[in-house]
Model the fold of this input.
Amino acid sequence: MVVETQPPFLEMRGITKAFGGILANDRIDFDVRPGEVHALLGENGAGKTTLMEILYGLYTPDAGEIYVEGKQVQIHSPLDAMRLGIDMVHQSFMLIPVFSVCENIVLGMAGRHDLRQTAEKIRELSQSFGLEVDPMARTGDLPVGMQQRVEIVRALYRGARLLVLDEPTAVLTPIESASLMRFVRSMALEGRSVIIITHKLEEALEASDRVAVLRRGRKVATRPTRDTDARELSRLMVGRELESAIGRRHDEGRSSCLAVEHLSVRGEHGALACKDVSFEVRCGEILGVAGVTGNGQSVLAEAITGLRRPADGRVSLLEVDVTGWRPRALIRAGMAHVPEDRKATGCVGAFNLVENLILGRHRESSFAQRGLILRRRAMREFAERTVQKFDIRAAGLDTATEVLSGGNVQKLILARELQRNPKLLVAVEPTRGLDVGAIEYVHRTILGMCDRGVAVLLFSSDLSEVFSLSDRIAVMYHGRLLGPFPSTEVDIEGIGYMMTRGIAA
Amino acid sequence: MTTIRLHPLGAYPVRVRRQRDRVPSRSRRVAIFASSVILALLIGALLMAIMRVNVLTAYKALISGAFGNSDNLVATLLKTAPLLLAGLGVLVAFRAGIYNIGNQGQFLAGALCSTWVGLHIGNVSGAFGVPLMIVSGLAGGALWALVPALLRAVWGINEIITTLMFNYVAVYSIDYLVTGPMQGGPLGVPETDFLPPGVQFPIIAPGTQLHAGFLLAIIAMVLIYALIFHTSIGYEIRAVGHNPRAAQYGGVSLRRTIVGVMLLSGAFSGLAGMGEIAGVHHQLLDGVDGGFEYTPIVVALLGALNPFGVGIAALGFAALSVGADNMQTVVGLPSSFISIIQALIVLFILAGEYLGRLTIERRVPTPQQSETEDAETHTAREVKP
Amino acid sequence: MSEIFVIGFLTAMIATGMPLLFGALGEVMAERSGVLNLALEGSMLAGALMSFLVAWRTNHLWLGLLAGMAAGIAVALVMAFLCISLLTNQVVTGTVLNILILGATNFVYSQVAGTALTPPHVSVFPNVQVPGLSNIRFIGPVLFQNPLLVYTAILLVPASGWFLYHTHAGLALRATGEDPRAVASVGMPVLRIRYFAVLYAGLMAGIGGAFLVLGQVGFYTPNVTAGRGFVAIAIVVFGRWNPYKILGATAFFGATEALQDRLQALGIALPAQLLLMLPYLLVVVALLVSVRGRGEVGTPAGPRFLTIPYEREAL
Done:
């Protein structure tokens, strides 16, 4: 248990960091005691990760001081941080997929390492914390939860006394999350400290001793966890009371929109990443597909939207066989797609808003005479209308899309996909990384489309999102599809169990 | 600590920051361009000083050689046409992120193809002579780009290496043909017979050598501009160049775009080669590609991949190389001297693009900050070159 | 075929393969660090010219070699500064740099030696016989009667392999090409690693260029490398970024070039130009053969972050 009077292990004072005129961190004071689990709570863009990357030496602060065990320190690189016993597990893992676990762990460590001895040490260390990993496995072949373990074991191997976990449960199943929290506790019992960066209230409340809340680059409060509750934290985090979850009327019995039969698709390495999947989405219905990242959802979504050729099986859209059709034909047939990686796939970053808003429709007669000569004025007018209607915030229509915030890029993509009156919307992780306001907006838009009779196929690793939106829910596990089940007949625990075990509880 | 520390660079720390996602403003780009040219010419002057060449005389010879009288001006314009055409070819490919640096081979293929056609249809051509020559030039260049295009589009094989290798193949093929099967004229001279007049470009400025190829290049420049910025095909080319994955998501076929762009790129280089045959040499000979090996690439880059920019760059480089010939006679500097200057200009512009995105910030610390901050340690680390 | 012919062929193969091997062993390091160093050709050409000029003027071959190394590194330094520090496009920078070096070498050679009536030439590196082994029938003259640089290059193959796969620095180098962010996150200097790798490639190319002139012919002709730097880059791809496979690929290309000389000597009636273009055609064929199955468009093989610049404060 933490003794409140204990001197802090880490203290950060007046940390300030600006990126191009925007204050990401504004005079933040923050401290962590030995043996403490400290949650750093805030919306996306509140400055949590920036603060921790300053601590880890990836950024140099514009102002502020850092003390470790009472002594002022200068942290200029991750190496400095590691020497001080500070280590970080990033949200996107910093592992080389083609390296073995062992190679990843010794990367960057001084001195010679006999691989066999190191492997033995890794095995022992991981077992003592209940985090079994195979040191000889190829890292890229491991499931995401296991890769996170590798990162944690690496930090332990390097002797971390303060471990920063950035959104650690974002990629985990409920069971894996629980086991991670057990590990965090056992680490704290040893007198080491843990900082958990999160935007999830429950996580902050469940695991921590204290919670620090950031909002728009400032720290608004630090509370002992036992003295606070979800209501207070959410008010501190968002600056207002959160509205209750969006209600959804369930509606069935319309005609079929998308039918997938016995679909098998090969993944990056040529192996079947999606095996014998069959389901149907009806008009005006939302089918939610849950699953831990990397269980074949992306590949399935790519096959349905024409970015990847299926190996076997059949896809039909409105009773027409569209198996193996390329995106252009599918777009014409009424498919809309909100892709997983909105900046890498969903738009051309160097294009301005006008050009991005017609991506995929650039050969339609309303934007191109005889499909060839672009109608510049029509494009511009369309963009003006759309930007206004969907409240896309940008300096101007000629702004390059890459400078927009994630939320505005997502609005742009949704606006574009919606404007062409699709029959089917395939949305993959539509709210990942967005702040609360933008999430609400995206959810309302999707529900609105559904009310107008559009069939929605939603892929999401966020279970609460799947449950609040879907009429029926299916689970992807190791490339196979379980379900779909009507959302009234399953609960979060049941789906969570299927996500980890591949069988119904 | 209550005093505000003075920073060596001024009253307050000055930090230089590179901003990503920000294109340099127009005035900055002009400044970068101008300073790159000046810097390259200065280095040229330095070289001349080392060679004990009078710098002023040399540069004067350069300018008068390029523009001094109408003959020189015509020579410059004659050189502009092929540079512009081939530069447009490079532009089209680079715009799609396809690094076709095989313009030399495609140039030669266009020259070869049109020569062969010209020699065979010569007598029956009539009004169709020149158009047929144009078509054969386009076809020859496109054909030479076809194999690298397919290799890239179907198997993902790096087009940089394959197009380069095809350059060497083209050079040796031409050498073989003009010394062997297609050899004409005096024995032992590596050249073909002369083309009949019906397939030669007409002269557009009476009394000079200026031929219709120059007009062709200007028309091509406008066409490429329209294609890139005012058609859906150009839209797709640019989308593929910036983000192939997003383009694919937006319904663009990568394979079709890559092949199309390569063929178009090759066709324009081929047209440049054909123009040299139909307008200047009137026969195929060894070294017909002299001065056009890599210059079109440099021209395309210097023109910032904008068709009109490429036009200006082609004119500038043509002037440099025509002027260089005069410089050689006057002060004895070899023409390779000018190719150094040309490459240096582009290298400086490449470097300048980075500098153009630097913004200098003067940070005025608030009293609270200056108390807590050791300004020097932070700023010193972040000043970038 | 006579024994002398085969021995001659194999010896020629080793000699013609050497510049390629040096270049490829350098380039593999640069590419493993994530930099496509197209300026390899420029480094090689600059190395060839400078080594020749110094050797010619000083009558000292080893001094010439040193000058070649320095020239190769100098070109690589410009490439590294532009691509690594100033984040310029690697393909574009490499191409323009090659054009610059082509012009510069032509200029320098014409100024220094262009006016001479007979082109200047130097003696070439002498063969060093390995005592005992060089007398072995057949193998001896081929493998153990070569200039010292040849032994160096051959030994560099296992050394490079050992470095890449069995040392910490090699691990870091490979990691930098696979994902520089991961390397930075464990506190290693990505930019410095890339600088070292590119400079090393320049050094190797410089030696390769020097060998081309001082190890084989003894005189310099403008653009003497004639795309050998590019062939070396292709060999790296063909050899799947692995030093041992690169040795095999080099032997293949050395053989085609050697064959070309032999066939001409035998008076086989093929146009000379066809033989001259053969190595370049074979590069294309080799690249096609080295593709495993049909690759997805836009997913090049090799290190994952090849050609992608790394920026420290990426925001």
